[in-house]
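A reminder from the course coordinator: this example appears on the midterm review sheet, so study it carefully.

Given structure:
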């Protein structure tokens, strides 16, 4: 019998939480984080705010990382508007090798 996760071909939106689903056995990396930030920035740029929480679910490793993204963004941005804070984060994630290659 197939389960929901067997049928997943991408990421999920579950009750306002954007869940990035990975099926590899490698640790989640900065690249995964960059993907989350980029999707949130694109969402905000389109005038949407569908996700306040994000998660990475790595099926291959049996790991689940959850983050209240809005609370983090508010704390690290100095209360900048969401779109401006996301723009800064996208720039940082694209330009910083440490973020791109580090595991978490």
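Designed residues:
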């Amino acid at each position: 019998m197939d389960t929901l996760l067997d049928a997943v071909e991408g990421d999920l939106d579950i009750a306002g939480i954007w869940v990035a689903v990975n099926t590899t056995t490698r640790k989640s990396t900065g690249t995964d984080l960059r993907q989350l930030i980029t999707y949130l920035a694109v969402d905000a740029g389109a005038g949407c705010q569908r996700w306040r929480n994000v998660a990475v679910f790595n099926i291959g490793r049996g790991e689940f990382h959850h983050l209240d993204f809005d609370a983090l963004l508010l704390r690290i941005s100095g209360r900048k508007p969401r779109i401006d804070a996301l723009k800064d984060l996208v720039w940082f994630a694209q330009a910083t090798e440490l973020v791109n290659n580090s595991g978490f």
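The chain is about 45% helix and 20% strand. Residues 22 and 42 are 21 Å apart (CA to CA).
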